[in-house]
Design brief:
The complex is a heterodimer of chains A (116) and B (114). Chain A has 116 residues and is an all-beta fold. Chain A is built from no helices and twelve strands. Classes of the chains: A mainly beta (116), B mainly beta (114).
Chain lengths: 116, 114
């Protein structure tokens, strides 16, 4: 069985602070994919990143960075110099690489509030 | 670029009624996924189709059924609606029916059951 845990239900920071969202996953599969999605108040799901289980390289995209550590089964997401527009619910998700059109397993999400 | 289209965007039904949600994937996408997101909850995978055949099944209630048509659009049929079915229903599409390719999500259909 697969499981994604986002222990932080809500985080509130002041604009320009750095913030890290934690994600811990469980899977018996050796090949899998990890994702982060952003869900702003408008409700759509915005894809942020996908990471293959064989690729442990960290990634940076502008103010966003991701730290994947297989040893601790974690895939954390850091926003540097946060902005009010970053306020949203962020979901970490896991997908089994079983060869079929498998669904995503989402964590419960972290509600990020950036205060001006 | 064309995105996933879902219709209707909003739907209000009474208990015990039926509802049909439609999903039109991105052109040339042959795989469709359905997710249900209750208020304050994470999206839950319901079911997926690849080339008009069911591919994976999640926590879809027996009262729900879905299919994918020859033009690759998909419909989610929900019968005997319950208050707990009130949720945001997402459709996503991808190419190839495999787990490698990214799922592109539609804007969702918000179903309210009164």
């Amino acid at each position: 069985a697969q499981k994604v845990t986002q222990a932080q239900t809500e985080i509130s920071v002041v604009e320009k602070e750095d913030v890290t969202l934690d994600c811990v996953y469980e899977t018996r599969d050796t090949t899998y994919y990890l994702f982060w999605y952003k869900q702003p108040p408008s409700g759509e799901l915005v894809f942020l990143i996908r990471r293959n289980s064989f690729d442990e390289q960290n990634e940076i995209s502008g103010r966003y960075s991701w730290n994947f550590q297989k040893s601790t089964s974690s895939f954390n997401f850091t926003i540097t110099a946060s902005q009010v527009v970053d306020s949203a619910v962020y979901f970490c998700a896991l997908r089994y690489s079983g060869g079929g059109a498998d669904g995503l397993t989402f964590g419960k999400g972290t509600h990020l509030i950036i205060q001006p | 670029a064309a995105g996933v289209i879902q219709s209707p965007r909003h739907l209000i039904k009474e208990k015990r009624e039926t509802a049909t949600l439609k999903c039109y994937p991105i052109p040339r996408h042959d795989t469709v996924y359905w997710y249900q997101q209750g208020p304050g909850q994470d999206p839950q995978f319901l079911i997926s189709f690849y080339e008009k055949m069911q591919s994976d099944k999640g926590s879809i209630p027996d009262r729900f059924s879905a299919q994918q048509f020859s033009d690759y659009h998909s419909e989610l049929n929900m019968s005997s609606l319950e208050l707990g079915d009130s949720a945001l229903y997402f459709c996503a599409s991808s190419v190839g029916g495999n787990s490698y390719n990214e799922q592109f999500f539609g804007p969702g259909t918000r179903l309210t059951v009164l």
